[in-house]
Amino acid sequence: MIREEKKSDKKKIFLLEENVLGPGRYARPSFRLRENLICNQKYSKIYYKGQKIIGSIRYFNCKIQSNKGLMLGPLIVDQKFKGKGIGKQLVNQSIKLINDKKISFIILIGEQDYYGQFGFEINYNIYFSINVRKEKILLKVLSDNTNNLSGRVELY
C-alpha cells in the first residue's frame, strides 16, 4: 500500500535508506544538495506492508528562475522487494498527484535508462550549485509554460 509520508516515518525511512544505499550515499551530489533540507511531505510517499516501510520516494522544493518545481530523490526500495514494481508504483502515483497540483517541473539526478520510462529527459541547460554530470540531470516538464527551462536549480 502507498500513503503520504508522515513525520513519524522519518526514522524508519532513514534506516531503510541506510540499509539500501549505505554510507556512500553521503558522497552523492543529490544527497549533498538536499543536506539539511526537509522534504515536501505532501508529495513524498511510502510503500508499506503491514507495519514495515519497504519503499520510499521523497520530493524537495526547488525552483529554476521563477518556475517552481520539485526535486525527486531518493527513491529507495528494500532489497528483498526489488524487481516487484514498487519503485515504479511510487514514481507513477506520486507524479500523478503532482500533475494535479500544477507544479511546473520535476528534476532529479539519476539514470535516463530507468527514469526515461516516466517521461524524464536529459536537459543540458540546467545546472546545480555543485558539480553534477550533465547526462545525470533529468527533467520532466509538467506545465506547457515551461518548455524552455534553463538556469540554476535552487533547492529550499
CATH class call = Alpha Beta
Query: What's the rounded overall pLDDT mean?
Result: 94
Oligomer designation: single chain
Low-confidence stretches: none
Distance N to C terminus: 29 Å
Element pattern in H and E: EHHEEEHEHEEEE
| Structural domain tally | 1
**What is the 3D form?**
globular
Q: Would you count the extended β strands for me?
A: 9
**How many DSSP helices?**
4
Strand content: 25-35%
The major sheet is characterized as: 9 strands, mixed
What is the CATH architecture term?
3-Layer(aba) Sandwich
Which bin fits the share of residues in helices? Answer: 10-25%
Question: Which structural class should the secondary elements be placed in?
Answer: alpha+beta
Keywords:
33% strand; 9 strands; nine-stranded mixed beta sheet; Aminopeptidase; 4 helices; 156 residues; alpha+beta
Provide the fold topology.
Blueprint (H helix, E strand, L loop, with lengths): L1 E3 L5 H12 L7 H6 L10 E5 L2 E13 L2 E11 L8 H15 L4 E5 L2 H4 L5 E2 L3 E2 L9 E5 L9 E5 L1
Give your account of this protein's structure.
The protein is an alpha+beta fold and 156 residues long. It has one domain (2-155): 3-Layer(aba) Sandwich (Aminopeptidase). It is 24% helix and 33% strand. It has helices spanning 10-21, 29-34, 86-100, 112-115, and strands at 2-4, 45-49, 52-64, 67-77, 105-109, 121-122, 126-127, 137-141, 151-155. The longest helix has 15 residues, at 86-100.
Summarize the structure.
By secondary structure, the protein is of the alpha+beta class.
